Amino acid sequence: MTAGTQESRRTPAAPLPLDVDKLFAARLHAARVRPYLATALFALHTVESRRVPTMAVDRHWRCYVSPAFVAATPVEELAGVWVHEISHLLRDHHGRGDRVARERGLTGPGERLRMNIAADCEINDDVFGEGLARPEGAVDPRGLGLPEGELMEDYLRQFRLGPRTQDLAWLDCGSGADGLEREWDLGPEGAHGLSAQQQDAVRFRVAQGITGRPGDAPQGWQRWAEEAFHPPQAWRELLGAAVRSAASGPGTGQDYTYGRPSRRSAGVPGAVLPSLRRRPPRVTVIIDTSGSVSDAELGSALLEVAAISRSVGGRRDLVSVLSCDAAAGVAHPLCRAEGIALIGGGGTDLRSGFARALRARPRPDVVVVLTDGQTPWPAARPACRTVVGLFPRRHSRGSWSEDDPDYVPDSPPAWARTVEIGSSCG
Amino acid sequence: MPSYAPFATHDAPARPAEPATAHVPQLDVAGELLALLRDTGTEPRPDTQLEALTLAVAADLPVILWGEPGIGKTAALTQLAASLELPLTTVIASVHEPSDFSGLPIVGDDPAEQGVPMAPPDWAVRLVRAGRGLLFLDELSTAAPAVQAALLRLVLERRIGSLRLPPEVRIVAAANPRSSAADGWELSPPLANRFVHLQWAHDHEVVVRGLGGTWPRATLPRLSPDALPQAVEFARRAVCGLLSARPALVHRLPSNEARRGGPWPSPRTWDMTLSLTAFATAAGSSREVLSALVRGTVGDGPGLELLASLDRMDLPDPELLLADPASAVLPERGDLRQAALDGVVAAVRNRPERPRWDAAWELLVRALETGAPDLVVVPATTLASLRQEDWDVPAAIEQLAGVVSLSRRADRAAARTAAAAQARR
User: What value of ipTM does the predicted structure carry?
Assistant: First the structure.
């Protein structure tokens, strides 16, 4: 740190001119150590503002900079702040903040401050290091006693404003971080803002840069890049859609049939018109009861499938449940959700489960498999629609891989519709 | 009302007043209240969704609107029909039978000899007689599969029984997203590929203002007749330029569950994209509108790539910049400006000649004077490396001294960061 910055730290009240060279040297450094963020960094329009405590962004991709903050902060830390601020915008923290506020009924500046802190936690746990210095006073989840690697929405549930966050009250990354308009914001009419489409274009190019060379970016950014334009959908909806479409597709459920003449036939003597008939679908749920799937996961998925089958018109007696480990258990009609005996544990072989489900007479129209995928699959397509609810096992996180790190299970076959269960938003 | 009773016999004017209210039929009063409630104003407001829908309808492509029930899809269609001056026919698919769309068989005297004609329903006959109109197929997703199959023939082949809809009839379908559709119908990939998918969402602000009495009135795009040839040329250049550089984008089936039933790229949808780009260009629509249309036709990824390549097409031509550096206008946005400067340096590299090299330096100085200095660093370094033995250093380079010190400053920051990281270990 130079003598000049030391001096300015002591006299912050004096109106300083904005040290443009320092600010842009920091941006250059940031773009050099994070080349995949360069497009986004350069797309930001900088605005000098004396009302901003440090640096802040708005939802139109402007960056407000306090001259006193630039003077008081070394170049390498400024670079960290640049990357931090651009992360808020790339990860759409303002839009997500608004959504969370609507969903959970959060109002007031205190809640927005919590959103800003939660968003900072999401960014700061893996954005620094590797050539980028951590700015002084950066919030991280560990400082709040929270686990690392989670999303803003998750952090938001886990802390309150209190003694631990006392010194964070000055923290303010602007409306781009939490969605609350600030007094210094230039608003949508102000110059040099980016439209929603332009923001998407920049996000897209950054995401492409990351997925193109995945080795360069930390895991948090890779996850962001994968999901930037395809946010994970709630598994309940996907599973519901898959089961419903399997159960109500042609041949099952409700459709027209020529087996009985239509009531309209009276008007058209001599012609046979189809009539609407309803045949409730038979659904068999095969549950993987091997040790690797937890009871809580199973319970929630099973309740979901039962509710969906009922909503498509399946009667309770037409939904049966089969627990399956290495040898398939006995099929039970689903009478009460809590009354299903889940026998098993240990290894799994779903092939026996399929064989048993298809042996039943009458045959099921739909087979729903709830599994973690650590199993061999039938070689040929079974004679019914198949939906797989897959509990994802991340190789990096799960403990199962420690015994045999090289073991990679077969992924569900292409003839089954696969829905990942239990991803972040549920 | 006992207090009025004493006056009733004496006070003549009061008497007719009271029975007047008592004798007005309640429904008339209700009618008055309804009239007051319906007395709302409108205000102009740009509406991206409606503009996109209008362009897709004008381009005669089948559109499917995805939106939660009760969100104003029908209201939007009414407005669209009024602005295109087309009569609107709404058919609620879920209350019909398949034979209403494939035609009702009419058995004649000698079916074996003359065949059984399929009689169309009355709304179709009226539509054909009118010769023009907007056909709105609502609730597509809650109809039974056989009805949907019959409807898709109507949408894609424009046939109802033995009747063929005239080309002046435009068709729009609406469906609820599968998360809220009771019967969970979804488009199979081949069908999804035939539609322009537009997401219909409500704008909170618009709804609140509308309920307060002021609904938005969208100004709809108008195609300008003079711009048509340029629009076609522009659209062809954009789509062909992208697809010749990225052949993998031409055809890509959706692979994962989340993307099923949505738009995906294929030669058919690229053809639709080409028309939509031309229409949006001829109407002078914003990039927002084009983005909704393109992403709704070929999907998010390929759509965004097309939009990104349009952005690059908007960049100034490096040769023009080199030809006249003194009056060059560089893009204001930093990332585009750097892309333009990179383009200039690349052009010099392709044909290294002394005057071009000098002109490029002049451009860099201009960029430095009009914008952020860090953008100039990389192009300046690259340009310096292109110098040939007998070329003198141009005077302009002195003005770029600030850039060099900026670059050194960033280097020092990098070195300090590395040293600090080393020390922590």
Answer: 0.74
